[in-house]
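Holo model, FE2/S2 (inorganic) cluster. Inputs:
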Amino acid sequence: MRSGVVLANEAIGGGYRHMAVNCPEIAKEVKDGQVVHIKVKDGNEPLLRRPFSVYLYDREAGTVEFVYAVKGAGTKIMAGYEPGDEIDLLGPTGKAYELKEGAKKIAILGRGVGIVSLVSLGVSAAGKGLRVEAILSGKTPDHVFGRKVLESSAAVVHEVYDADGSSDVENVRKILERSRQEGAIDQIFVCGSKRLGKLAYDFSQEHGIDGYISLEERMACGIGVCYVCVCKTTKGYQRVCKDGPVFPLAEVYG
Ligand SMILES: Cc1cc2nc3c(=O)[nH]c(=O)nc-3n(C[C@H](O)[C@H](O)[C@H](O)COP(=O)(O)OP(=O)(O)OC[C@H]3O[C@@H](n4cnc5c(N)ncnc54)[C@H](O)[C@@H]3O)c2cc1C
Ligand code: FES
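Output:
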């Protein structure tokens, strides 16, 4: 368990909030795609921690950032956190995204709140000199975030929306194909949509590249003990909290 201090917790549109927390222990250890479980307390309720992907981290400043959708009891309490509030964090947990040795270009496909899990990966990859093609999908422009952060790290960003039909799988496939024609994609990473996951799987199979998906399941313990979060894979049932959340696409769609 780690203690963090809320630095900011602001609405950013689309029902999302951005929360920055000072927690040097987590900032030092966290890897791209990992998760932190927040004890969201109002007295003793709710009992269970809530899992959130780490959006960004700064090892030197000792900060970690989250973007979360306000949904039920727990996230409504979180929305009331103010700068200076102390919070109880468990993590980082789970498997991280791994960049392949020698990769020159990656594609990331995020949908809605699933974008959160991919942004630090895009920033890290671009920081290492890889070309990053990011496709960010949401119901409307308000439901997409992360563009500025990714562009400032030199990633190429495409936003697609349900509102104008551009989030259609066929259109996303076209964007991927166009990008591939400009230079081979070595790895593809996806989060937040089963449809985009299937598209990424098909694309990875067609072009013989690695692909990974970060999955979301309801969780209880968050540390691999209770088996509440299992999902069916080609390797049998696996725990999303401990064996994932990042899985090879072939284990999920193969
Ligand atoms: C690996 C992982 C990463 C996540 N990352 C993010 C993120 O970065 N941003 C974000 O907004 N949301 C994220 N979620 C979803 C987030 O955990 C839920 O929206 C949140 O727990 C809802 O809590 P609540 O009390 O507001 O809702 P309630 O519906 O009241 O929650 C009731 C119970 O269900 C669980 N639960 C509800 N929805 C989900 C869900 N979708 N996934 C898992 N458990 C759920 C809660 O933890 C709680 O135990 C993630 C979930 C997982 C599993
Ligand atoms: S939440 Fe308990 S094993 Fe995953």
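The domain at 105-215+249-253 is CATH 3.40.50.80 (Rossmann fold). The two ends are 37 Å apart (CA to CA).
Archived with the compound record.
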